[in-house]
Design a protein that fits this description.
Blueprint: E1 4-7, E2 10-13, E3 18-24, E4 34-39, E5 46-51, E6 58-60, E7 68-73, E8 78-83, E9 92-99, E10 111-114, E11 118-123
């Protein structure tokens, strides 16, 4: 069982940076491709970034490409999302998730375990 907990969210201003973390108390995160998704108020949850088990494959949504970086530390059982040059449109609840399909994926349906989310608010 993968039990994911996100942290690192907060309220920042346009242009600031944040680093989100996603850890697994069961210490099995290292075995799964991982993803970050976000959901803004009144909108559907959307893909942000994904990373394979060995970090050799990473995909990003076009809206965050060049600003966000996904990484992982399998020794610490933690996945990170470094967010730079934040914009008001990045405001959302951010969720990490573990893929049970064995591959990094952009599809929410490929992810079977989800964290509770961490809020990111970017003001102009």
């Amino acid at each position: 069982q993968v039990q994911l907990v996100e942290s690192g969210g907060g309220s920042v201003q346009t242009g600031d940076s944040l680093r989100l973390s996603c850890s697994d108390s069961g210490r099995t995160l290292r075995n799964y491709p991982m993803g970050w998704f976000r959901q803004a108020p009144g909108k559907e949850r959307e893909f942000v970034a994904t990373i394979s088990v060995n970090a050799g494959v990473r995909y990003y949504a076009d809206s965050v490409k060049g600003r966000f970086t996904i990484s992982r530390d399998n020794i610490k059982n933690t996945v990170y999302l470094q967010m730079n040059s934040l914009k008001p449109e990045d405001t959302a609840a951010y969720f990490c998730a573990a893929s049970f399909k064995g591959l990094a994926s952009t599809r929410q349906s490929d992810f079977g375990s989800w964290g509770q989310g961490t809020q990111v608010t970017v003001s102009s």
